[in-house]
Write the structure tokens for this entry.
Amino acid sequence: MSVTVRPVAAQDRSAWDILYQGYATFYKVDQTADMRDRVFGWLMDASHETSGLVAQDAQGKLIGLTHYRPFASPLRAATSCFLDDLFVDPDARGSGAAQALINGVAEVARTKGWAVVRWITADDNYRGRGVYDTLATRTMWITYDMKP
């Protein structure tokens, strides 16, 4: 399957919405239409730190998405990139869309001079981890979340 990656655009809204709902469902996160409106607003706001890419098939159908943002890495005295979300339509898995999206973020990072692209995934996301292990180095870090 031929996959093209490009920045998310306003006309992608309805297809992006379906994909992002699928992402939330995959991770069992309750997500409302208002939440998706807010995130898509961020993606359309050039001054917001969050940006996005979409993957489309040869017919132009959106089959995947990813969101990313810069973050400061004081220990390295560098700016790096955090890949926040990555989702490929289940019917398009195995198409190379995940790799293309990650490589698209890596290209953005290279262009901007960011030191590293970092992301997290669920321990039981075996299929995703199989892809990630071919593209990046798994780190030793354990992630914690704390409500303020």
Remarks:
- Residues 29 and 147 are 16 Å apart (CA to CA).
- DSSP finds four helices and five strands in the chain.
